[in-house]
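Session log. Operator J.P. requested a structure for one protein chain; no other inputs attached. Running the standard single-chain path with token output.
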Amino acid sequence: MIYLASPYSSATPLEREERFLCVAAYAAQLMVERKRVYSPIAHWHTIDRLATEKIAYDHYIDCDLHFLSLCEEMYVLCLPGWEQSTGVKIEIDEANRLGIPIEYIHFGEQL
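Structure written below.
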């Protein structure tokens, strides 16, 4: 399974929504290609919006790292801001620690 990392956090709800739509579209493309993919942003975006209380960031990271540990490879969707994303950095460090190969997908090249 592919773990699809991408930046999400932003000061503006519009940018978060745009990031969600980009990663969900790329995850859909991978699914059409019959690849197994898990995207934390595609998974958590709606849950976060519908939660009756704020979900702690460290809980998201804990869940994401568990899912990452179950994957054979990781793709990083290099949307604008990915290099500054704390979450993406944590995910890359964990993939490296676990020996999971990482492929960087540059925005616009694959979508």
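Operator note: The mean pLDDT is 90.
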